[in-house]
Structure formats: structure tokens, C-alpha cells
Amino acid sequence: MEWMDHAIRKHADLKDRFPIIHTGFLELDSMAPLLRRGTVSLLGSRPGMGRSTLAAQIAANIADSGGYVVWFTTVLSVGEIVEKILRVKPDFQCPQNIALEDRVGDGRELQQAVMELGQRIDLVVVDDLQGMYRISRGGQAIFDAARICADLRDFARSQNMAVLLLSRLTRASEYRRGHHPISVDIPHWESIKRVVDSVFLLHRDGYYTGDTSQYQVATIAAGPSIDRCAVLSLLWDKMTGRFLPYDARLL
Question: What's the domain range around 70?
Fold first, then answer.
């Protein structure tokens, strides 16, 4: 049973070094926690699955519980993010706990913007990875996914905060039976897999089957790699466009 003792010690060490940040979803905080301090997690999906919606709900939940969130977007405007947050959490109480920025794409500028807040940060959301870049010595904007992710991981460790990277996935799953995404669908996966701490891939069967029921199952394949993952389940409310804790009684 030596291997079990080792696994228990490793799990305890992980909890001590990288404490969980609660998302407001028990499913995302337990078996394979989405957010840990000092780590970078990647949440990927095909368009229309709701990755930015889920991130908005999590950001609002953390802010309402007293945490501080910084959201950098290269996809939406600040106004559009505000609308999204209020749509998915109409009773949002603490807007002062979220800072929104839609003018930063360079990784170094992102870090500088966070530091200038002079605030203990719990979560940084980057929407999305494909819109980030770094400035070369020659002044050129370069997309270097591995370098960007590595810099963000170092920053997360130094600031004891979580970073959540949102990422579009390639079209590969569209041609796969069942359409379920896998980690190799993440653009530049081979170059970033060693510098991203955890991967979470969001999928809704109902998107492809034309399911008309109000509540649909949303699954998240979660883990450090394609070979070691757990499957987490939430519900997606078609009427409100929000994610809910999984409750089989609603299906």
C-alpha cells in the first residue's frame, strides 16, 4: 500500500501549496478543482458551448464571496463582459471586486496592469489565449503560446493567484464521433502542455443533437492531460443560458 500512502501525501502537498479557490460550483471544486492558487488552468471548448459564460459565472461568484477578479479580454468589449456577467448573475452584488480590461493583449502589459491595481488578486481570467501576444526585441507582436503560458504560470506562482485561460478549440471534434473534445484539439497543445497545470474541456451533447429540453447536461473533461482526466457534470439551462449545479431530478 506504499503507492497509496504516496498518493495521499502528494494530494495533501498539492492542497497545501496550491489552495483551492471556490468557484461556486461544488462539482468544480472537489474531484478535479478548476482553480488553485499559483496555477494556470485552461478552459477550452468549441464556439457556442459557453466557456465565457461559465467563466463569467465563476468570476461573479468569487467577487460576491469577497475575492478579487481581473478579467482581460481580447474578444469582447468591457461593456459586453458587463452585460454577460449581469445576464448570468442578475443578483450580482459586488461589481467593485471585478476589474475589466479590453486594451491589453501583451503578456507583460497584463502583468503590469495587475501589479498597478495594488490589490491582492484571487483570479485572473484571460479571454482568450489566441488573442494574446508578446512583443519581441524588434518591437514585433509575436504569438508564442508556450512562452505566454509559461510567463503567466510564473506570474500566478509569484502572486499566489489563479489564472484561467479561455481557449477556442480546433474543428477536429466536429468530425469526431460524439464530437467530444480532447486535449490535442487545443491549438499549440504540444508546445503548452508542460506549462499549463490543468486542462478543462467543456462540451454539451445537446448542441449537436438538437435537444429542446430546458435542462441539458454539460460535461467537462478535467485533468492534467488527455490520459489522466475526470469527467465533471453541470447542467445548462437553455432558458437563461446559465450553468447550474448538476441535479439529475431536473432531467
Answer: 19-202
Tell me whether residue 169 is in a domain: yes
- Report yes or no on 224 lying in a domain: no
Contact 106, 133 (CB under 8 A): yes
DSSP lists the bridge partners of residue 231 as 221
Instruction: Indicate the burial class of 195 (C-beta count within 10 angstroms; 0-12, 13-18, 19 or more).
Output: middle
* Residue carrying the nine cell digits 469582447: 76
Tell me, letter by letter, the H, E, C secondary structure of 82-103.
HHHHHHHCCCCCCHHHEEEECC
- The count of structural domains within the chain is 1
Residue 133 contacts residue 159 (beta carbons within 8 Å): no
Global pTM?
A: 0.91
The enclosing domain of 139 has a CATH number of 3.40.50.300
Distances (CA, A) of 108 to 115, 123, 135, 149: 11, 17, 8, 12
- For residue 121, CA distances in Å to 30, 74, 184 come to 22, 20, 31
Residue 199 and residue 177 in contact, taking contact as beta carbons nearer than 8 Å = no
Residue 13 reports pLDDT greater than 80: no
Residue 211 counted as domain residue? no
- Say if residue 158's pLDDT is above 90: yes
Question: Is 117 within a domain?
Answer: yes
Percent of the chain with pLDDT over 90: 73
